[in-house]
Amino acid sequence: MAEPQLSVRSARARDLAHRLARRENRSIADIVERALEAYEVRETGREPAADFYRRVSQAYGEEIDLEVVIRESRTPHSGLDL
Predict the structure, then answer these.
(1) What is the pTM of this model?
(2) Mean pLDDT, residues 1-18 taken together
(3) Cα separation of 5 and 7, whole Å?
(4) Does 1 map to a domain?
(5) Is the pLDDT score of 1 beyond 70?
(6) Which of 39, 18, 47, 46 is nearest to 30 (CA)?
(7) What domain range is 31 assigned to?
(8) DSSP letters along the chain, please?
(9) Could you give the number of structural domains in the chain?
(10) Is 2 inside any structural domain?
């Protein structure tokens, strides 16, 4: 079965993807995927992992045990109300 393909009708986008792929020594598909993922994070407001960990370390200090924080915040589910 053939791989899905993305067709972009922009010479500028094509040239930029090729230039970045050569410079980064990556495939064009990888460049496009990474660019779209970065765009999604930026536009949807999803916080990147690096920013999350930076914010958590500023709020709680350098040494934080995420397992303890998660365990403290957990509450048992009461189950279905039939």
Answers:
(1) 0.49
(2) 83
(3) 6
(4) no
(5) no
(6) 18
(7) 11-73
(8) -PPP------HHHHHHHHHHHHHHT--HHHHHHHHHHHHHHHHHTPPPHHHHHHHHHHHH-S---HHHHHHHH---------
(9) 1
(10) no
In this structure, what token pair is assigned to residue 18? 């090729």
**pLDDT over threshold 70, residue 20:** yes
In this structure, the number of other CB atoms found within 10 A of the CB of residue 61 comes to 8
Q: Is 19 a residue whose pLDDT tops 90?
A: yes
Q: For residues 29 and 22, is the Cβ–Cβ distance under 8 A?
A: no
**The one-letter amino acid at 6:** L
- Residue 21 pLDDT more than 90? yes
CB atoms within 10 A of CB 79: 6
- The pair of structure tokens assigned to 43 is 């536009």
Rounded-to-integer distance, Cα 68 and Cα 64, Å: 8
